[in-house]
Amino acid sequence: MKTCHRFDLLKARAERDIRMHKAHAAKHAGERSAKQSSTLAALARQGMAKALSRHYANCPECA
């Protein structure tokens, strides 16, 4: 699958956010903020999938 620069940029930013939330959850295990951060990581992953799918469907360079 060949993708454009914007697709790669969207993916990199989303993956960075997911890593940040997972790292926070691991660092603060057992606390309320860790559970919330884990939830945010899952939501960010779903959001990334939607955004990348939407981009791929509408981008003339990727399709």
Automatic annotation (TrEMBL):
Record protein name field: Uncharacterized protein
Organism from which the protein derives: Actinacidiphila rubida
Source lineage: Bacteria, Bacillati, Actinomycetota, Actinomycetes, Kitasatosporales
